[in-house]
Each structure stands twice: as C-alpha cells, then as structure tokens.
Write a structure and sequence with these properties.
By secondary structure, the chain is an alpha+beta fold. It is built from ten helices and ten strands. Helix 6 packs antiparallel against helix 8 (259-268). Bound molecules: the ligand COc1cc(C(=O)NC2CCN(C)CC2)ccc1Nc1cc2c(cn1)c(C)nn2-c1cc(Cl)cc(-c2ccccc2C(N)=O)c1. Ligand 4FR is lined by residues 2, 29-32, 34, 40-42, 55, 57, 89, 105, 107-109, 111, 155-156, 158, 168-169.
C-alpha cells in the first residue's frame, strides 16, 4: 500500500448496483487534482466475474460541497461516455455509492507519457512524429464532435501495451453548442491555477479572453516542443514568470531542431489563436509527410532511444 494511499474511504470490493458488477480494488496508481483542489484517485480495479482489469477513477463525494462540483463530474462523464475512438481512453461505465463516484476506464498498462518523458527526456524525431500523429487523430475526433479537451498534457496521454496513445481525463473538457462559440469559464481558469503548474495553458485563457478549439492546438505545440527538446517551452521556477512568458509567447527554439519541426512548433505556439492551424491542417504538415513515421514502437522506447536505420 503506497504511503499516498490511505484508501480507507474506498472499500476493497466496489459494487456497481446498475450492472451488479463487483470490482476488486487493486493497486493505487496515483491521484490528480479535481475542481475543488481536492483529490480524486485512480486504482487498478478487476471485475471479479470476468477478470477484466480497468483503471478506476474514484471521486470522493465529500469534495462535492457546492452544487457545481457535482455538475462538473456529470459533465466529464457525459462527454467521455459519448466518445468512441482508438486514441481516446475507453469509457466502460460509472456508478456511485454513499461515499464516492466511480468511473471505470480503459487500463493503459504503460502508464502516461509523463513517465516516458521523465525517463527519456528528449525523444527522437520519428518517435515524436509517431506519438504526435496519434494525439492529433484523437484531438481531430474531439474537435469534429465539438469537444475541446482544454487540459492536454503528458500526464493525460496514456500508453497501452501496444504503445498506442490514449487521450484521457475529460475533467476540464467542454462541448461547444454552436459554431463560433467562445468559452469564458472563469472557474475553469480558477481550477487551472488551483491545481499546480499551468502545464500547457494557452495565453487567451490566462488573459481571460474567450477561447475555443485553438487552446488544444497550443497545448499540442507545447507537447511537441517538450518531446523534442526534453523540457516544456515556458518552464521557469516561478508560476508568475511562466505565466508572463506564456502571455509574451517567449520561448527558445534550440538550433538542433530540424527546420520542419521548428516551423511547426512556431505555427502552434502563436499568441493569436486564429493564426494557429486547425488539427486537420497539422496532420498534413511536412513534419509528418516528409520524415520517417514508425508504424509501431517497441516497448523498449519507454527506457531507451530506438535506432531506425
Ligand atoms: C498499470 O497501469 C498503470 C500503472 C501506474 C503505476 O504503476 N503508477 C505507479 C506510480 C508510482 N507509485 C509509487 C506507484 C504506482 C499508473 C497508471 C497506470 N495506468 C492507467 C492510469 C490511468 C488510466 C489508464 N491507465 C486512466 C484512463 N486514468 N489513469 C489515471 C492515472 C493516474 Cl496516476 C491518475 C488519474 C487521475 C486521478 C484522479 C483524477 C484525474 C486523473 C486523471 N489524470 O485522469 C488517472
């Protein structure tokens, strides 16, 4: 039992009353911040009858003091359960008891790209092309269904046994109700600052301007930079300074980057959201069409750089 997991408010056996499925609670995977600054937790859970193993995201109800917190988890579930795509984490169900809300999700045994990043730092260009293409295919599906993810970051990009990318955590996602709608969720901004580092937050959100699909393209630009350079583009050791750099769009493109990579990153990290390419344009960019794209990656890429000769 890891020290972070007191787990006392989560029973060892969890029953979904709707489907009468019993899950056995297994390993604690980790936790992440939720809307109230409290923590939801993720465990390995096993359907005792079928033996199927999932990632169970468990949100304590005691966190939901205000009405809008229940609305937020309802929104997350409504958005995620409507998804069905190879590069979106599978949604297998949800239920609640007196203590918690439980979300049953596809287990990705190779964890998230944050662990890959911590272990490998800068990746090769073919690997970056491989991961980015799958992220773009997943985000294209979201945008085609009028969903903005709004929290694309390495910790929300999970990897399965076949090293395929699965986009997860729709806790900050939003559905646009009409073309041209610009979101202005003030509490969204509050949540983003509340839960630690700004990760890959777009300048228009920091400046509390309306925002839309372009914020996901900005985040993908930050992800591409981080995968190729080995560290995030706006990282400093002060939140205030990081925000300042994001607002001023101040980042350095190292000289070792190939031209097509530098050009693509700068297209995505533009201060004006309207100047950024849409996801379908990104997929046909020369960075993807002119360089080697591995059809798959070996699991060894989690720890050591592959050779593509
Ligand atoms: C075998 O599969 C895994 C092993 C591990 C692992 O070994 N972790 C070790 C880290 C070091 N400590 C000491 C021991 C455990 C982590 C993730 C796995 N897989 C996995 C995790 C998944 C998913 C699919 N698959 C999905 C889908 N969501 N999550 C997930 C994971 C985490 Cl840590 C937090 C959250 C999370 C919890 C609350 C709110 C939001 C979120 C959120 N980010 O969605 C979600």
């Amino acid at each position: 039992m890891s020290k972070m997991d007191d787990g006392k408010e989560i029973p060892d056996f969890i029953v979904d009353p709707g489907t009468r499925t019993t899950y056995k609670k297994g390993r604690f995977f980790g936790k992440a911040c939720t809307y109230t600054g409290g923590f939801a937790k993720c465990y390995e859970i096993t359907d005792v009858k079928s033996g199927a193993v999932y990632a169970g995201k468990i949100v304590p109800k005691k966190l939901m003091t205000k009405h809008n917190q229940r609305e937020k988890i309802t929104q997350e579930i409504a958005i995620h359960r409507s998804m069905n795509h190879k590069h979106i984490v599978g949604f297998h169900g949800f239920f609640e008891d007196d203590l918690n809300i439980y979300i049953v999700l596809e287990l990705c045994r190779k964890r998230s790209m944050m662990e890959l990043h911590k272990r490998r730092k800068a990746l090769t260009e073919p690997e970056t092309r491989y991961y980015l293409r799958q992220i773009l295919l997943g985000v294209l599906y979201l945008h085609e269904h009028h969903i903005i993810h709004r929290d694309l970051k390495l910790g929300n990009l999970f990897l399965n046994d076949d090293m395929e990318v699965k986009i997860g955590d729709f806790g900050l996602a939003a559905k646009l109700e009409f073309d041209g709608e610009r979101k202005k969720k003030k509490e969204f901004f509050y949540f983003r600052t509340l839960c630690g580092t700004p990760n890959y937050i777009a300048p228009e959100i920091l400046q509390k301007r309306g925002h839309s699909y372009e914020v996901d393209v900005w985040s993908i630009g930050c992800i591409m930079y981080t995968l190729l350079v080995g560290k995030p583009p706006f990282e400093t050791n002060s939140l205030k300074e990081t925000y300042g750099r994001i607002k001023r769009c101040e980042y350095v493109l190292p000289p070792f980057l190939k031209k097509s990579a530098s050009v693509l990153i700068s297209k995505m990290l533009q201060p004006d959201p309207k100047a950024r390419p849409r996801v379908e344009e990104l997929l046909s960019n020369s960075f993807f069409t002119s360089g080697y794209l591995p059809p798959q990656l070996p699991v060894s890429c989690l720890t050591t750089a592959p050779r593509f000769d």
